[in-house]
Design a protein that fits this description.
Helices cover 23% and strands 41% of the residues. It contains six helices and twelve strands. Strands 5-4-3-2-1-12-11-10-9-8-7-6 form a twelve-stranded antiparallel sheet. It starts with a helix and ends in a 13-residue tail after the last strand. The N terminus is likely disordered.
Length: 291
């Protein structure tokens, strides 16, 4: 019996040593992943879009297709229409039109200096328009639309100088993605912006914007006690990547807006199926201004 124990003991020791060696060998890989610098992630991402020559050649872009909007909470329903995104350098115009009198569509733009959104009937603004007006950095720095637009900020990091923080791989929407925190140089601190990238291709797949307005004491005659806090969130997702003029660009784009306020909740999403992308269009500069 003693001889068996003497034989087994060295085997256990060897297994333990091997196990420790395996742990030691695997640890640096995980550590290296967390040590990736934002500049490295961005460099890989730019390569995923296309060569420097192909990116430089695409000074302007027009992307258009069919868009469908779905209201999932409150006045539930859906309607289809047309959408077009026009960009040139940092300038951007994104419009969606629908055959509905009470909701003719969305219009948003950045002319290089000023961000703006359009009105609905009777001078009203949509919930999406209100969100973009409150958080202008989304249009001013070209975040809206991702790489579908030439205004995409990761194409011009040196010019914009955003504050970036690589957070490692995070499980998001059921998949492991690289997470990069983004904050514009002049962006509001309460707006949280997270960019997500595929770990194998480094394509940009998702952006999340969120902010909260803390609860406040009611001061009006019809207000009593403490009002609840308000939460707002916009999620953009990108899919169906295809090659166009040497660039790998998404042909499916979805934007979702959710809000929880004292007036109620809302959840709406807009899905654009891009049928045409061109880098050869010519257009007047006034297109980037909403009248």
């Amino acid at each position: 019996m003693k001889s068996c124990e003497a034989t087994v003991a060295p085997v256990i020791v060897v297994l333990l040593i091997c196990g420790l060696t395996l742990v030691v060998r695997q640890a640096p890989a995980a550590a290296d992943d967390k040590k990736m610098k934002p500049e490295e992630l961005i460099a890989h991402h730019l390569e995923a879009i296309g060569s420097p020559e192909a990116r430089a050649a695409a000074a302007s872009r027009v992307a258009s297709g069919r868009v469908n909007v779905v209201n999932r909470v409150g006045n539930a329903g859906s309607i289809s229409g047309q959408a077009m995104m026009v960009s040139s350098g940092a300038r951007l115009r994104f419009g969606m039109s629908f055959p509905a009198q009470d909701y003719p569509g969305e219009d948003m733009a950045f002319d290089g200096k000023k961000a703006m959104t359009g009105f609905l009937s009777q001078g009203r603004r949509s919930a999406l328009s209100l969100f973009l007006n409150a958080q202008e950095v989304m249009l001013k720095e070209g975040l809206v639309g991702g790489v579908l637009s030439t205004a995409w900020p990761l194409l011009r990091v040196e010019q914009l100088q955003p504050r970036l923080d690589y957070r490692g791989l995070k499980k998001t929407d059921g998949q492991q993605l690289h997470e990069l925190s983004y904050r514009g140089n002049k962006g509001k601190a309460e707006l949280r912006i997270m960019l997500y990238f595929d770990p194998s291709t480094f394509r940009h797949l998702r952006t999340e914007y969120s902010f909260e307005i803390g609860a406040q004491l009611g001061n009006g005659p019809n207000e009593s006690g403490r009002q609840q806090e308000s939460r707002f969130k916009v999620i953009e997702t990108f899919d169906d990547f295809r090659q166009v003029d040497g660039l790998t660009l998404p042909h499916k784009y979805k934007l979702q807006l959710s809000a929880e306020t004292m007036r109620g909740s809302m959840l709406s999403d807009w899905t654009l199926d891009v049928t045409r992308i061109s880098h050869k269009e010519k257009f007047e500069e006034e297109i980037f201004t909403i009248r």
